[in-house]
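Aim 2 progress update. The chain analyzed this quarter is reproduced below.
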Amino acid sequence: MVSAEMYLHIINNLSDGVYFVDKNRCISFWNKAAESITGYTKEEVVGRSCADNILNHIDEEGRPLCVVGCPLYASVIDGKQRKAEVFLKHKDGHRVPVLVNVFPMSVDGEIIGAAEIFTPNSPVVYNSDLVERLSNIAMHDELTSLPNRRHLQSFLEYKVNEYERFNERFAVLFLDIDNFRDFNNEYGHEAGDLVLKAVAKTISKTTRKADLFGRWGGEEFLGIYGVKSDYDAPIIAEKIRILVQHTQVPYDSVLSVTASVGVTIVQPGDTAESIVDRADKRMYASKEAGRNRVTAD
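Predicted structure tokens:
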């Protein structure tokens, strides 16, 4: 009789990627092919929830499947097998087209989780231009073309990990356009969109390649900047505030823009969430102090 260990040995040496999740979507198995196809080792993945969006699956329209409908989670819920053509995010950042086959796992008629088998798809079907376009859709804001919240969160988690391992310090800047609702109410949403685009273009042109500035949501923007000293963060923030203040948007009349900014430097024990929350609170302190100013640690 073939033992469970022998079955796992066979699965672990398939050319297709295979992973298992329990009912809470926690990954319990990750085979060697999954490591090869995705770049993630089993040590980096096993024990984590697939809801963490590790592979950041998107469909052909660029829609994030963990948001609009995860086939793995759906199979855990309704017990049905599913097949799909998707794009996963390799650890190095590029997109990999794969065919996925998802099916529930059960014991004595009760679903205990699900398995996903994924195979690299034919490059003839998905050329590199399409993969690059879908990657841009998934990781960039449609209106401003800046990195979107998903991209910012991923980069921030990387920076926190880099800080923990190598003590590479960085600052997080939280920017909110002042009185943005007035632009929409007085001039219309078209004017509001022009303001967002103008601010995005102004700041993106001054951002270093090693840093990242993007749209967090609505009229909020987030910047992640490498720093060497405590003085670097407020200097960067003040420079950006001044650039926004001198941004003028031609509309029926010239629209002037200001922003309130909060900035903080990573501290021991920080998580991606805690440092964003602290920068956000600094930004609100700038609002309360009269707007169009910087509040730093």
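Residues 4-137 form a domain with the Beta-Lactamase fold (CATH 3.30.450.20). Confidence is low (pLDDT under 50) at residues 123-128. These observations will guide the mutagenesis experiments scheduled for the next reporting period.
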